[in-house]
Amino acid sequence: MIRSKRLFVSVILLCTSVAANAQQTDKGLKDYYKTLFPVGVAITPRHLQDSATASFILRHFNSITAENVMKMEPIHPEEDRYNWGGADAIVQFATENGLKVRGHTLCWYNQAPKWMFYDAAGKLVSKDTLLNRLRKHIHDVVSRYKGKIYAWDVVNEAVSDHPNEFLRNSLWYQICGEDFIAHAFRYAHEADPNAVLFYNDYNTEDPVKRNKIYRLLKKLRDANVPVHAIGLQGHWSVKDPSSTSLAAAIEQYASLGIKIQITELDVSVFTNNKMPEQRNFTSEQELLQEQQYTMLFDTFRKYRQHITGVTFWNLSDRSSWLDNFPVRGRKNYPLLFDEKLQPKKAYWKVIDF
Ligand code: GLA
What we know:
The chain has helices at 2-26, 29-32, 45-48, 51-60, 72-75, 85-97, 127-144, 171-176, 179-191, 207-222, 243-254, 283-302, 345-350; strands spanning 39-43, 63-66, 100-108, 151-156, 196-201, 229-232, 235-237, 259-268, 307-312. With 353 residues, the protein is α/β, with parallel strands linked by helices. The radius of gyration is 22 Å and the shape is globular.
């Protein structure tokens, strides 16, 4: 009797540990970071129509961003016409599955519709007209998803890359001067006072650009403009940034009392703009990438009190915008999952802490 009771208990224990192991292997990236920050990914509506891809998203990520469909031109191609379909599908998927949504992006010089800047005669519009159009655009988009999109990249890439220029010489800047930035944040805040509002940019660790971004954000914050956070896009490579420049950037931005997210993370395996002789993912690239991802996530965890989210730009090495940028047709391997959606070596490092 005792023996059989023991047997029963051992069988139960065995079953529990098998179940625990199964659960262990079902764990996705987001689960390891559950108590730290959401882990997100940029997707297209098409991903959601394929059930294997949709379950892959749900397994590893608890936040999503539209790669393109919420940008100004795709969502608002003509003054009196919006294209809500793709954005609605993404928000609905998130709502049904309990995912967070980061909205991207409300005011950008790129992928902005031409009509926004010109009148019927083809002349540039006045500052008043442009700001009215911007206000209407932001109000329409933000209100539609109020309460469903918790954070917005309000202004994207307004700071110049040229050492001697502060703001990018875009049509926004040419027509409105610096003011369009503060207005964009105010319009977004009017439309959804609960949304977390981001300034988003790249090369945010470069000391020259970092100081310009800091100067811009400080000025906005001092003027009580509702900018709550900075998005470091995180289009990085196996060599860049260094851990010291990343830490210095995080500390400088955090000193403004704002939150930080990594909004478009990928780690290019290339450090030049040349077409390589070999097209495959080499073991040297694999090792360097593993080391870089390890450093990045060590840093994110170290600064967890400031970092409120990390979003990857694309799902896996099956397809990345870096396959065509900056070198057209150069296959890249920038993500944590390979072309078969399997975890790469870097993945196992990122979850091992
Ligand atoms: C920038 C934008 C993104 C995306 C990438 C390239 O970082 O913010 O929306 O267009 O470029 O895919």
